[in-house]
Every structure is written in structure tokens, then in C-alpha cells.
Design brief:
Structural class: alpha/beta
Bound molecules: ligand LLP
Number of domains: 2
Distance between the termini: 63 Å
CATH topology of the largest domain: TIM Barrel
Number of strands: 21
Shape: globular
Oligomer: single chain
CATH superfamily of the largest domain: Alanine racemase
Strand content: 15-25%
Length: about 425
């Protein structure tokens, strides 16, 4: 993690900014994002693709981190966006991503969302079912438009990742069953309002090896050939996202191996290629800063370190048993002999646990820590459960940092709530 370093006097630094200074000034819990990490990783991915001799358009998966500043940085690096809702579409446009670089995916897009996408002129809508194809056709005809669609096929391969983030198996809800894809493509070619341009496949997330990609793309390549033999034009393959990162000691997914899998299976098809990475770019760029509220001793066992961040902020450990690295911010804490402890949040759920039996320096009340690799599926999955306001967010670049979302106020939690008159004793 080149953008995080330990300074002997300032403690944990993100780029040129001591994270304790951020915590001192705006408190915790607070998300920190490193702009340079976003840029470096976006460039590495682009370089891996061009290095493999591929011309690939990169659509950042907005769901992994949808902050306008993040999207603006990545747009300035030339990336487009992969969106899965009307909200994400409007966010991407607001951040300056042109509609012509936006792909709209998702298993259930509402009529309103589809109308919006058609009206804004997105590059492509990825169709996930026969039913959806008919709906898009009707809505496009109604709008007097013809939209480019790609069929998202379910290649039925195992991405070898966590069950909750596997999407490419036949019993997952995603995509058109492989064996039905060709017939549906030909149906699309005959429908008004839609123009089938190709296929899309996304088999899951946090994928560390190239083999599942190769298996999936081999199936897609077969489908492209069969479709062409049937007389239809195929000009696009969207290879999805899913490249994993090293949360612990598993090593990260290699962009070069990913590019190699694409080239090996799809390189000679003469199609325009696209990818939809999220986590690989945004994950390592973010941290979540938190303060120890208290240290609860357990007789004969590891203490509970109760933090001011909780599952409502960073849900991944509760939902997927995900492992996030934890580092103390203070240079003093960083060099203490580690002990075994449980790191938990204050929310009233046993599942509100970040780490059990984790070896950490002895953290006392007031100590501050950073959760690592929290830039993807972190702030975006937060809720206000237990009436806990959304945490602040800061962006760091070089020696500068700025608040990019102030801490939500408690009053904002109920600002839009009303109580009907009859509850207030009105007539
Ligand atoms: N494209 C599609 C169609 C997707 O469904 C996803 C992620 C991506 C691209 C981006 O995948 P990535 O490159 O970020 O792996 N909340 C979970 C991850 C859910 C991923 C959902 N789909 C987590 O925290 O691990």
C-alpha cells in the first residue's frame, strides 16, 4: 500500500497527510480516500490492458464507491462508468462522466430508470433477461430511440470466491442462461428500439485467479462465434469486473493476468472490449478511521476493544466475515508488543464485530485506528442503524486534504420525517 506509510513522529500517513491530524480536526469515524491511489491503480489497469495489446474501455463500477470526487478523479483518468441504478447514472453524469461512456447493468431496472437511461443516451444497456429485453424495446420505441444492448450471459462458472458475491453460477439470479442466449440475441435483432451489439459477462467479485475468467470468456467466445454463424453482428464483449485485492495475505488479483485471460480467449474476435472493475481500483485507496471508546476487560480472555465505528459504517466484516487490516494511527501505539483482542462496534448486534482474536497493539481508550482497504463497498454500504449519522469523508492528495462530505448531523436523520396531524392532537 504505497500511499500509506508509518512516520516515526507523525504516525500513520496517507500520502503526505498524517491521519491523526485529520482525526484531530474532524473527529471519527471518518473515511479517508487517497486520490493518488485511485489514479495510480486506474493507470495500472489501463497499462495492463494496452500492454497485452488490447484496446479496452474501462467502466468503473460506481457501486464500489460512488462519491462524486472519486468519480471525477477516475473520469479525468479517462474511465467511464458501470451503473446499476438511476441514482448511480445521475451521479456519474453529475461527476462529468459522459453518457457515451456509461454502461447500465442490473438485474431489475425499473421503467423510470430505463426511460432515464434511454433519454440520457447511455452507451449500452446490459440486458439480464428475456423479459427485460421486451420492456426495453417497448420503452425505446415509446421514446423514439434505438438503444444498444448487450446480453449479460450467465456462463455458469465458479468464480471461486465468497458465496454472497458469486454471480456467474446457473442458480444465481444474474444474466441470461447460457443456453438461451443465442436465441434471445436473435430475438433482439428482430425487435424494434433495440440493437444487440454483443455480450456481457460478470462472474463475481474478489476474484484472485485468472482461471475462472478464462473459463467464462471461453464460453462467451463460443457464443460470439455461434451468433455470427447464425448471421447476426457481434461487435462488443463486456468482460465484467471482479478483480480482487489483497485484504490479508492472499495477494491481489493481477491486472496483467486479467488482461491475459481476455486476450487469450477474446483477443482474436475483432470485438470492442470493455471491463467493469470496482474494488481493484477503489478498495486499496480508502481507510476508515475510528477511535477506541473503551477497552472492556474479560477475565481470562481477550479484551473487547469497543470502537466508535460500527457495522452501520463498515458492513463487510459482519456481512461476509471479511478481514480488514487494522493499523494504529499513533507512532507510539504502532511499536507496542501486540496482544490478542476483539474489535467491536457499539451497535446492539452480536454481529457488530470487526475482528475476533486479532493481534493488535494494546489499544487504550482514545487510541485511534485505521481500517485498511475500505475504499470499496465501505461508505456506500453504510446505514444509519441505531440512529448513527453517516461518517465524514475526506479526500487526500499529496499534502492536501479536504472534507468531501461533512459528518451527517443527528438532526438530519429526522429532518425529512413528519408525524401526521392526528398524532399531534390536531383535529
Ligand atoms: N459489474 C457488475 C455487473 C457487478 O455486479 C459488479 C459487482 C461489478 C462489475 C464490480 O465488481 P468488482 O470489480 O468491484 O468486484 N459488496 C460486496 C461486493 C459486491 C459486488 C457486486 N457486483 C463486497 O463488499 O465484497
Amino acid at each position: 500500500r504505497p500511499q500509506l506509510s508509518l512516520d516515526p513522529t507523525c504516525g500513520l500517513m496517507m500520502e503526505g497527510v498524517p491521519l491523526s491530524a485529520v482525526a484531530d480536526e474532524i473527529g471519527t469515524p471518518t473515511w479517508g480516500i487517497s486520490a493518488s491511489t485511485l489514479r495510480i491503480r486506474a493507470r495500472r489497469l489501463l497499462t495492463a490492458m494496452t500492454g497485452a495489446g488490447l484496446s479496452v474501455s474501462v467502466h468503473f463500477a460506481v457501486k464500489s464507491n460512488d462519491h462524486l470526487a472519486v468519480l471525477r478523479i477516475l473520469a479525468s483518468e479517462g474511465l467511464g462508468a458501470d451503473v446499476v441504478s438511476g441514482g448511480e447514472l445521475l451521479r456519474a453524469l453529475e461527476a462529468g462522466v459522459p453518457a457515451s461512456k456509461i454502461v447500465f447493468s442490473g438485474v431489475g431496472k425499473s421503467d423510470a430508470e430505463l426511460r432515464l437511461a434511454i433519454q440520457k443516451g447511455v452507451a449500452q444497456i446490459n440486458v439480464e433477461s428475456a423479459e427485460e429485453l421486451e420492456i426495453i424495446s417497448a420503452l425505446a420505441v415509446e421514446a423514439g430511440r434505438v438503444v444498444d444492448v448487450a446480453l449479460r450471459v450467465n456462463p455458469d462458472v465458479d468464480a471461486e470466491t465468497h458465496a454472497k458475491i458469486t454471480t456467474g453460477l446457473a442458480d444465481n439470479k444474474f444474466g441470461v442462461p447460457y443456453d438461451e442466449a443465442l436465441a434471445l440475441y436473435l430475438r433482439a435483432a428482430a425487435l424494434p428500439g433495440v440493437r444487440p451489439v454483443g455480450y456481457a459477462a460478470h462472474i463475481g467479485s474478489q476474484i484472485l485467479k485468472a482461471d475462472p475468467y478464462r473459463a467464462a470468456y471461453a464460453r462467451v467466445a463460443q457464443l460470439v462465434r455461434a451468433t455470427r454463424e447464425a448471421g447476426a453482428v457481434v461487435s462488443v464483449v463486456d468482460c465484467g469486473g471482479g478483480l480482487g485485492i489483497g485484504y490479508r495475505d492472499e495477494g491481489e488479483g493481477s491486472p496483467e493476468a486479467f488482461a491475459g485471460a481476455i486476450r487469450a480467449e477474446l483477443g482474436d474476435l475483432d470485438v470492442r472490449l470493455a471491463i467493469e472493475p470496482g474494488r481493484w481500483i477503489s478498495g486499496p485507496s480508502g481507510v476508515l478511521l475510528s477511535t477506541v471508546i473503551l477497552r472492556k476487560a474479560v477475565t481470562g480472555g481477550a479484551p473487547f476493544i469497543v470502537l466508535d465505528a460500527a457495522m452501520n459504517d463498515l458492513l463487510r466484516p459482519s456481512l461476509y466475515d471479511a478481514w480488514h487490516g487494522v493499523l494504529p494511527l499513533s507512532p507510539h501505539d504502532a511499536v507496542q508488543e501486540p496482544e490478542k483482542a476483539h474489535l467491536v462496534g457499539p451497535v446492539c448486534e452480536s454481529g457488530d464485530c470487526f475482528a475476533r482474536d486479532r493481534m493488535l497493539p494494546p489499544l487504550q481508550r482514545g487510541a485511534r485506528v485505521a481500517f485498511l482497504d475500505a475504499g470499496a463497498y465501505g461508505s456506500v454500504m453504510s446505514s444509519t442503524y441505531n440512529a448513527r449519522p453517516l461518517a465524514a469523508q475526506v479526500l487526500v492528495e499529496g499534502e492536501r486534504w479536504a472534507v468531501i462530505r461533512p459528518r451527517q448531523t443527528v438532526e438530519a436523520l429526522w429532518a425529512n420525517e413528519t408525524t401526521p396531524g392526528w398524532l399531534n392532537g390536531d383535529a
